[in-house]
């Protein structure tokens, strides 16, 4: 069968590539065409456009690049109609993908499946109308989404979380077996205990959070802070937010290796909070914004959820501290970080709570379960 997939960022590329491999096991004649990334290209098929050419986040960047975005949408719609896939699989990226779904539903009978639900439970809940109208099957990776969609009378399939697969796969790999000494030698690190800094994968996140993270790091002389960089952002950009007299290392595209060797982590909210928890690394979630008090007031009015980190959302209570808006400052961050270091008052309780979160996610095999159900729906 012919599968057309659309992703809009790095995490979608990872999860879609794993889904594609699983689909190949279920369907030996699988053909792929996609808007995606390098990981998907490594599986095979035809890359139409790289997600780096489409990933505009925030009101101003979207407005400035609106003409390009609309051009990409038009080209994507035309390409899907010309290729005539047996199924269109959308992966997160709702601003783009729901518009594509609306068009394809109106102009064809191509089945439309969604893998990794748009986070409409957090905000823009009205999008449920578009999903009910345009999406045939939705495959969820977060257990609490099942109840949310049931309330809206739209049944979905919870297949498990692919981060569990990715982390377990890494731990069983050659890199997953390396010692702390081997890791330190690879990157020229000292023998001091490591604290991982995951400041996000987008420039705005890094700009907002990294400076405060680094100012806090100066209060921990006995630890070594290491930034998990992404290769799509140049090192010089990170360096703008690091005091010039600080000896801070950056390691690019090695987040799992860094987390495995870290005693604790400072993490900007996102999938990284879940991955950090799956490595059993205590963390403080950091999400600074300008006009922090106003942001926190608006958050209570706009957001439909109590938390911003996936870890807390999965267990439906705060097990990792979230420093949001004006709460994200060096004083609070230092205090909360000390609580989760070895010997800290909150460390053992947090690790026990991670075990509860892991149980709620279920076993590994999300990609395989999703692929098996996708093929079964298509042939049945």
Main sheet characteristics: 7 strands, parallel
Round the mean pLDDT to the nearest integer and report it.
Answer: 91
First-last Cα distance: 13 Å
Number of helices: 18
Which architecture of the largest domain does the CATH hierarchy give at level 2?
3-Layer(aba) Sandwich
Q: Which structural class do the helices and strands define?
A: alpha/beta
Principal-axis shape equals: globular
Query: Helix proportion of residues, in percent?
Result: 40-55%
Give the beta-strand count: 13
Uncertain segments are none
Can you tell me the CATH topology of the largest domain? Rossmann fold
In what order do the strands lie side by side in the largest sheet? 3-2-1-4-5-6-7
The fourth-level CATH homologous superfamily of the largest domain is Glycogen Phosphorylase B
Give me the Rg, rounded. 21 Å
CATH top level class name of the largest domain:
Alpha Beta
Number of domains: 2
The proportion of residues in beta strands is 15-25%
């Amino acid at each position: 069968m012919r599968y057309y997939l659309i992703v809009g960022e790095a995490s979608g590329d990872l999860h879609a590539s794993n889904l594609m491999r699983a689909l190949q096991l279920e369907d030996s004649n699988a053909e792929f065409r996609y808007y995606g990334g390098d990981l998907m290209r490594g599986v095979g098929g035809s890359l139409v456009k790289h997600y780096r050419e489409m990933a505009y986040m925030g009101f101003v960047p979207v407005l400035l690049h609106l003409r390009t975005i609309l051009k990409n949408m038009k080209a994507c719609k035309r390409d899907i109609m010309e290729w005539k896939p047996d199924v269109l699989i959308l992966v997160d990226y709702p601003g783009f993908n729901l518009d594509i779904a609306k068009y394809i539903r109106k102009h064809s009978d191509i089945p439309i499946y969604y893998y990794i639900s748009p986070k409409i439970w957090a905000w823009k809940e009205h999008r449920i109308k578009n999903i009910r109208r345009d999406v045939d099957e939705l495959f969820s990776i977060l257990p609490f989404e099942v109840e949310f969609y049931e309330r809206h009378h739209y049944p979905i399939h919870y297949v498990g979380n692919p981060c569990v697969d990715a982390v377990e796969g890494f731990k069983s790999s050659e890199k997953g077996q390396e010692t702390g000494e081997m890791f330190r030698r690879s990157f020229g690190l000292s023998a001091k205990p490591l604290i991982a800094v995951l400041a996000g994968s987008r420039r705005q996140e890094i700009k907002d959070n990294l400076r405060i993270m680094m100012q806090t790091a100066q209060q921990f002389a006995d630890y070594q802070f290491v930034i998990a960089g992404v290769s799509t952002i140049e090192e010089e950009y990170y360096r703008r937010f690091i005091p010039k007299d600080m000896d801070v290392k950056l390691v690019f595209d090695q987040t799992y290796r860094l987390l495995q060797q870290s005693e604790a982590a400072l993490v900007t909210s996102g999938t990284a909070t879940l991955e950090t928890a799956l490595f059993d690394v205590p963390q403080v979630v950091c999400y600074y914004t300008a006009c922090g008090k106003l942001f926190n007031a608006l958050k209570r009015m706009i957001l439909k959820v109590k938390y911003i980190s996936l870890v807390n959302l999965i267990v439906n209570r705060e097990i990792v501290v979230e420093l949001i808006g004006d709460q994200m400052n060096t004083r609070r961050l230092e205090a909360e970080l000390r609580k989760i270091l070895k010997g800290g008052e909150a460390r053992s309780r947090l690790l026990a709570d991670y075990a509860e979160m892991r149980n709620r996610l279920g076993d590994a095999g999300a990609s395989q379960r999703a692929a098996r159900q996708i093929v079964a729906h298509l042939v049945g």
